[in-house]
Amino acid sequence: MMDTIQGQITGEPYVWRNPLAVWDSKGGNHEVLTVRVPNPNSIWRENTAYKAKTYKVGRLKHYVIWPANGERLWQRWRWWPTRRNLLHIKGQYNRKTLKAEKEIIDRRPIYWAICLLALVLAPMFFPVGLENTLLTAGVIFGVFAAINVCWTLIVGTASIFSLATYAVVGVAAFITSYMSIKLGLPWWCLPPIGAAIGLAFGAIIALPALRLDGFYYALLTLGLNELCRVYFTTSKEFGAASGGLYGADSFISNAWSPYAQSLVSYYSAFGLLVAALFLFRFTSGKRIGRILKMAPEKREAFAQATGVDYRRARVTIFLLTSVALGLIGGFYTALYRGVAFSIFGFDTVLLGLAMLTIGGIGKAEGAVAGTLIVVVLDKVLIELGPIRHIIIGGIMMTVVLFLNNGLYGMKRQFWAWRDKKRGEWRSTRTEKGGEALPEEATETDNKDLLYFRRFDKNQRDYLRGFICNEIIEEHKAKPLGQHSEALERVLLYFRRAPMDDKYAIHRLGPNGLYRIIAVAGRRGISPRVVEDKEYGTIEEAYHGVFMRRVHDLLES
Amino acid sequence: MDITFILTNALVVACIYGLVAVAISITWSSLGLINLAYGFVFSFAGYGAWLVSGLTGGNPLMVAAAGILVGALGGIIICLVVFIPLHDKPNFTIRGMTGTLAISLVGSQVLLWQFGPRAKPLPELFGFWKVSLGDIVLTSDKIGIVACSILMLAVVLVWMKSSRRGLEIRAMMMNPHAASIVGIGIRSTGLYVMAITGAMAGLASILLSQTYYIAPFSGLTPLIKGVSIALCGGLGSVQGAVIAAVILGFVEALTSRFLGGQYVLITQFLVIITILIIRPRGISGLLDKAREQ
After folding, report:
1. Where are the alpha helices (H) located in A360-437, listed in sequence order?
2. How would CATH label the architecture of A130-381?
C-alpha cells in the first residue's frame, strides 16, 4: 500500500523542525522528514489555463463603418419619390470611443451595382480577337440569366418544382416566330404576344400544380417539355426540316455592321436581365414573397393555419413568371429572328438546372452566377469540345455532393459547420473531474455550490500532489499535535469535510478496542461500521482513519 | 393500319417502358431517390451489350446477360456516386435528383466521346419466326420481348416477396427510418435496389434495341415514358405501374389509330394529367406519410 501512495507533484524531501519543540510541546514531532509544498496557485493556474491553440487574429466584423456626426448620422439616400432607403444603414455610437458612426448592414445592393456596371462596361475590355465570341456568349448569358431568374422565382420562391420553364419560353418563341413570318407582325408586337401566350400556357400547366406537389410535378413537367419538343419538331407548320423556325422580324437591322449588331444584341439582352431582376425583386422581396417564405414545401399546413392563402400566392407568382417567360420568348424571337428546336431539348433543361444548382436555388444572384459559369464554359471555351459538358456535369455533381444550396449557400453552410466544430472543440476542452458540467450548472439555483465544487476540485488536485510516504510516516509517528506544512494542509482539508459519511472512532466498551465507523450526518440514523479491523490504541485508530481518507482522496 | 397490329405494338412497348417505370418506382419508394439517370443506364447497358456481341459473335444469351449485368453495374455506380454520399444530407430529394441528372449529363457525353454519334445495332436475340393466331401474326421479337419483360418482372417481384433482401427492401419502402433502426443497412440495401433496378433498365434497353438502335441519347425517350408511367401509376407502386403501362399503351394505340401518330404524346399527357388531377398520388400511389424524407 505504501508503495502505491505517491502523489504527482511531490516536492523534494527536507527535514522539518517543529517550532514548538523548544517549549517541549506535548505530542507533536520534533524533527521529521517531510516534503516541500508547492504554491497553491500553481494547480489553479494549470486547471484554469486555456489550452486550446490560439492565433493572433481575432474575429473581425468586416462591416464598412465610416464616421458621421451631428444630424448627418440620420441622413439617408432614398429612392426618390418614396421614403425607401437606398442602402440599409444603421446609425450607431462606437462602444469604445462613443463617436457617431454609420454601418452598412446589407451590402448586396453595392455588389449588385458593381457587377451590373461591370457587365455594362465589359464590351470595352473584350480582347480584340475574341470580341465576337464574347459578345455572342454575352447575349446568351443575358437571355438565359433572365430565364433562370424567373425559374428560380418559380422553384425557390413559389416552391413549384417546374421543369417546363424552357418549354414556356420555347412555345412563346415558336408561336411568335410563326406569327411574325406568316402575318408579318413587326418586332415590337412579339414580346407582348409572347407574354399573352406565356399566360395561356402557364395557366394550363398551373392547373396540375394546384393538385400535385413537389417531385410529381417536376416529373410531369419534364414530360411536358418532351411533349413540346416532339410536337414542334414533328409538326408541319413549324418547319420540321430546318432545325428551327427563322425569318421573323427583328429590331436589329441587317444593314448595320456586324459589330454594331452584336453590341445592340448584348445591351438588349442586358436590359432583359435587369428587367428580370426587377421582377424578382418586386415579387420575392415584397409581400407575396414573404407570404411564400412562410409556406415552404411540407410546411404548408402551418401557413394555412395562420391564414396565409399560399396556393393563391403560388399560382399568382407562377402566372406572373409565365407572363415574363412568354415575354422573354417573344423577345428571343425578335433578337435571333427565330428559334431553334434545341430550346426544348433535354440538354437545355439539364444545363439550365445545372446553372440553377451551381448558383443555388431561390436566389437571384445564384441564378445569375450559375448562368455565368455555365455559359462561359459552354460558349466561350468552345475549343474544348465535348469535354466542356463533362466539366459542367462535374461541377454540378461537386456542388450537389458538397454544398447544401449551391455557391450562395456556402456562407451559411460554412457558418453552421464552424459552429458545430466550435462546439466539438469546446466539449473536448471541458474538464469534468468533480466540477459541474455546463448543463448541470444552468440547472442549479445555488450558484455558490458551483464555486464550491470548483474550489474543492482544485483543492483535491493540489493536495493529491504531495501525498507521499514521508507525511504518512510522519502521521503514523504522531497523529496529533503540530505537523509539517504538507501534512497540516492535508489534515485541515480532511477535518473540514462535511458531516455526512465522515469517519469516526468507536471504542468497544470502556476498556475495549477501537473501530472505525462512519456517521450518517442525519439525525436519527445510526452510524455504520466501515471495517471489521480493530485497533489496539487510539493512535493506531487515528492513523487508520487518516489512511482511509488518504485512500478516498486518491480515489476521487 | 391494322388495329391488332397497333395493339400488339402498344403491348410490346408498354412492356419495355413498364420495366423502366417499375425500376423508377422501386427506387423512389425504397430509397427516396428520383433516379433520372436511367436514360444513361439504358444507353450504358446497350453499349455494354454491343461490345459483348462484338466479342462473342452475337450469342443471344451472352448479349442479354451482358446488358443486364452492365445495367446493374450502372445502377451500382449511381448508388455509389449519388445515393451513398447524399442519403443523409439535407435537401436529399432535390440534390439526389440533380445528382442523377449530372450523371446523365456526364455519362451521355462520355458515351458520345467514346463511341461516336453513330447508332449501333444489336443482333436479333429471338431469331426470325412467327406465330399466327387466326389473322393475328405475332413475330418472334414481339413474343420474346413480352415474355422476357414479364419474366424479369416476375423474377424481381418473387425475389422481393420471398428473399431476405427483398424483405429488407420492402421494409425500407414502408418506413426507411424504422428499417434502419432495426438493423437494415440503408447503404447496402441501396446497393441491392440500384443493382436490381439497373438490371431491369439494362434488360429494357436490350429489348428495345430489337426495334431501335443504340445511341448515346437513346435512353431519353424510355426515361420520359417510364417516368410518366411511374407517375401515373403512383410512385412506389408496382401494380400501379403495370396498370398505367397498359392504359398508356392502349391510349397510344388508339390515338395512332384514330387521330394520327403526332398526337400520341398529347393524348397521353392529357390522360396522365387527368389521372393525376383526380388522384394526385397516381392510380395506386402510396400516401405522403409513407415516404416522408
Report:
1. 364-375, 387-402, 410-429
2. Orthogonal Bundle (1.10)
pLDDT digits (tens, 9 = 90+) for A362-415: 889 999 999 999 999 888 887 887 788 899 999 999 999 999 888 998 999 999
Distance from CA of B67 to the nearest CA of A (A): 24
Supply the pLDDT for residue A5: 44
Q: Residues A266, A123: contact at Cβ < 8 Å?
A: yes
> What distance in Å separates the CA atoms of residue A357 and residue A486, rounded to the nearest whole number?
70
Rounded CA gap, A325 and B28, in Å? 31
- Cβ–Cβ below 8 Å for A393 and B102: yes
Find the residue in B nearest to A227 (Cα).
B265
Which pLDDT band, with edges at 50, 70 and 90, does A6 fall under?
A: very low
Q: A288: which 3 cell numbers? A: 407575396
Q: Which set of grid coordinates corresponds to residue A205?
A: 400547366
Amino acid at A326: G
For B232-241, b/e burial (b = at least 16 CB within 10 A) is: bbbbbbbebb
- Enumerate residues 6+ apart whose C-beta is below 8 A from B276: A208, A211, A212, A216, A220, B231, B232, B282
Geometric angle at alpha carbon A174, from A170 and A176, rounded to 5°: 115
Nearest alpha carbon to residue A368 among A317, A408, A321:
A408
**Closest Cα in chain A to B36:** A219
Give the whole-angstrom CA distance, residue A433 versus residue A351: 58
With an 8 Å Cβ cutoff, is B281 touching chain A? yes
Pull the grid cell for residue B290: 409513407
For B:98-127, CB contacts with A below 8 A are 98-99, 101-106, 109-110, 112-113
Nearest to B97 by CA among B27, B30, B188, B43: B27
What's the one-letter identity of residue B221?
Answer: T
pLDDT-derived band at B292, boundaries 50, 70, 90: very low
Interatomic CA distance for residues A404 and B90, integer angstroms:
7
Determine the Cα–Cα distance for residues A467 and A463; give it in Å rounded to an integer: 7
Contact list, A386 vs chain B (CB under 8 Å): 109, 112-113
Of A348, A401, A235, A393, nearest in space to B87 by CA: A401
Rounded distance, CA B226 to CA B221, Å? Answer: 8
Tell me which residue of A249, A241, A252 sits closest to A183, measured CA to CA. Answer: A249
The answer for A 496-525 residues in CB contact with B (under 8 A) is none
Q: What is the ipTM of this complex?
A: 0.87
* Side chain identity, residue A549: R
CA atoms within 13 A on the CB side of A116: 19
CA nearest neighbour of B104 among B154, B189, B175, B44? B44
Q: For chain B, count helices (H), then strands (E).
A: 12, 2
Q: Where are the domains of chain A?
A: 13-47+446-555, 65-110, 130-381
- Structure confidence at residue A4 (pLDDT): 40
Q: Are A33 and A13 in contact (CB under 8 A)?
A: yes
Integer-rounded Cα radius of gyration of chain B: 19
A224 interaction partners in chain B (CB closer than 8 Å): 269
Cβ of B228 within 8 Å of Cβ of A223? The answer is yes
Contact A236/B at CB under 8 A = no
Q: What angle do CA A196, A200, A201 make, to 5 degrees?
A: 115
Coil, helix or strand at residue A529: strand
- B36/chain A closest Cα distance in angstroms: 9
Q: Where are the beta strands (DSSP E) in chain B?
A: 130-133, 136-139
Confidence class for position A10, pLDDT limits 50, 70, 90: low
Q: Residues B154-199: pLDDT tens digits?
A: 998 899 889 998 999 888 888 888 888 998 888 899 999 999 999 9
**The dihedral of CA B118, B119, B124, B128: what is its sign?**
negative
What confidence score (pLDDT) does residue A64 get?
Answer: 66
